[in-house]
Specification:
By secondary structure, this protein is of the alpha/beta class. Helix 6 packs across helix 7 (185-194), helix 14 (374-384) packs parallel to helix 15 (402-409) and helix 17 runs parallel beside helix 19 (481-489). Helix content is 36%, strand content 19%. The structure holds S-adenosyl-L-homocysteine.
Length: 519
């Protein structure tokens, strides 16, 4: 392979994406995604995994389902991998579950070998073990079974004679896990019973295992076809056959979490949302991220540029938010400057988090007030004596005026320099509307007044009646009284509000709310 490598410096990494939960990819898989130049991904690979790939990486959806524009054939996918690798790219081919378990991984590799392309294969958590685990079914158990077989329920089309020895499998393996078997379920169960497996054998069917929309049902070989039909279970789903299914009533954990099956909207910006999303998901919720805040560069940097040109005249440089820090430095770097150009003023920040952010840029705050508010900062600064001093305040284009006002009243000269703008995001409005229309949202979380205002702008109800029609069936959770007030001003009802105004307390209140509703 070494000789060919020089001709084809690119490489294809066939990576198992795991069954659906984004945390179930291997560390090796994540490492390779982080370094990918091209990612070719499947219908069953969770698109959230693409967030690991560099922004610059080319993303190609090669799913054969829900195909949209790019419904690739297997030959098309093979060609795509070969073309990109031949062009010297690091290509990650991301496949649901494990690439070598009913994943056609080997077929892709065979083509790569024929084309002389270097490759690596990274295993993944296959959906069989994930479905079992997440449905509370151990696929082996000393007292129930010592063997397990993975079987496809959907043989390659065009095959006349079945390759699968159902007669032997029926009683030959203690547990059977059948992939792609939903359509053939009546035939499969019949074959198993005809060949000696008891009609009373417990069976579970698990759809979209390990994801927030997991759906599992239980029956026996005799009844499961009817149960699945009634529950309207469609692929992707796995069939688990065997006595181990009995353990589910003790071990089932995933679907028992308090927020399981609830679809909750998170309105914070993507950067800020992670803690809230993580806590809600921990409790089983399906989080729908519709950021209602989006930041863009300021329209005009004149105030900032003038101040930077005369930075030696300034006594203080103030930062009142993390965003102000990052947008300030973004502009500084674009102007070919860095922290060394800030010699002169002392630096004050509004609180510890902002101080920490500043430290990331190599600067230490000289002053942090005891009270982490604009008023607190003004007070602390005024105590140092600001009369006649020039103060630079980089911040959002529109922000509370209290800080510059207090400082000016104390005789300071404040240069308010816009470094970014908050704009309501345009994206995915229609999808949000549609979800509200078809009632597939249980709860909306609001963590500030602007998230409320922008959310309502996004859903754009024509009238009060329409607003109520869309929002009345939805529960509303807010972080604190100011946000609650804004919700009520729009004529809407607040259902959940924590006693302490933190994300952790808000999630705790949401969990308690649903637990009480369920009991
Ligand atoms: N390589 C994959 C399997 C691909 S075959 C793996 O190792 O898991 C596709 C079939 O896998 C689907 O029809 C379904 O039977 C099963 N499957 C994949 N992901 C699943 C999931 N999250 N929940 C239930 N079944 C799943």
């Amino acid at each position: 392979m070494t000789k060919k490598k020089s001709r084809h410096p690119g490489k294809v990494y066939l990576v198992g994406a795991g069954p659906g939960a984004p945390g179930l990819i291997t560390l090796r898989g994540k490492y390779l995604l982080e370094r990918a130049e091209v990612v070719v991904y499947d219908y069953l690979a969770n698109p959230k995994l693409l967030l690991h790939a560099p922004k610059t990486a080319e993303r190609v959806y090669a799913g054969k389902k829900g195909g949209g524009l790019h419904a690739f054939t297997q030959e098309g996918i093979n060609k795509l991998l070969i073309d990109h690798a031949s062009a010297g790219k690091r290509v990650v081919r991301l496949k649901g579950g494990d690439p070598f378990i009913f994943g056609r991984g080997a077929e892709e590799i065979e083509e790569l070998v024929a084309a002389g392309i270097d490759f690596e294969v990274v295993p993944g958590v296959t959906s069989a073990t994930a479905a079992a685990t997440y449905a509370g079914i151990p696929i082996t158990h000393r007292e129930y079974t010592a063997s397990v077989a993975f079987v496809t329920g959907h043989e390659a089309p065009g095959k006349k004679e079945s390759n699968i020895a159902w007669d032997k499998l029926a009683t030959g393996a203690g547990t059977l896990v059948i992939y792609m078997g939903i359509k053939n379920l009546p035939i499969i169960t019949k074959k198993l019973m005809d060949n000696g497996r008891s009609p009373d054998t417990p069976v579970a069917v698990v759809r979209w295992a390990s994801t927030p929309i997991q759906h599992s049902v239980e029956g026996t070989l005799a009844t499961i076809t009817e149960v699945v039909k009634e529950a309207k279970i469609t692929p992707p789903a796995l069939i688990i056959v065997g006595d181990v299914v009995k353990l589910r009533k003790t071990i089932d954990w995933f679907e028992r979490r308090p927020l399981f099956g609830k679809h909750m909207v998170v309105t914070r910006t993507r950067e800020q949302a992670s803690e809230l999303v993580a806590l809600l998901e921990e409790n089983g919720a399906d989080c729908l991220e519709y950021p209602t805040l989006h930041m863009e560069p300021a329209l005009d940097y004149k105030v900032l540029d003038d101040a930077l040109a005369n930075i030696g005249d300034y006594k203080w440089l103030l930062f009142t938010s993390l965003n102000a820090v990052s947008w300030f430095f973004r502009h500084l770097y674009r102007q070919n400057m860095d922290a060394r150009n800030l010699g002169g003023p002392r630096i004050a920040v509004v609180g510890q988090a902002t101080a920490k952010k500043l430290y990331d840029y190599g600067l230490k705050a000289d002053l942090i007030p005891k009270k982490y508010t604009g008023e607190g900062l003004a007070e602390a600064l005024i105590q140092t004596g600001v009369t006649g001093s020039k103060i630079l305040l980089p911040r959002a284009e529109k922000a509370r005026e209290i800080l510059p006002e207090l400082l000016e009243q104390a005789g300071a000269e404040v240069a308010v320099a816009p470094v970014y703008r908050n704009v309501p995001p345009q994206g995915r409005k229609d999808e949000l509307r549609e979800r509200l229309e078809n009632r597939s949202i249980d709860l909306v979380t609001f963590t500030s007044s602007s998230t409320v205002d922008n959310f309502l702008t996004m859903i754009a109800a024509d009238s009060k009646e329409e607003l109520h029609r869309l929002m009345d069936p939805v529960k509303i959770a807010v972080i604190g009284p100011v946000t609650a007030d804004t919700v009520q001003k729009h004529g809407l009802r607040v259902d959940i509000q924590p006693g302490q105004y933190t994300i952790v307390d808000m999630v705790h209140s949401i969990v308690t709310y649903y637990q009480q509703a369920a009991s």
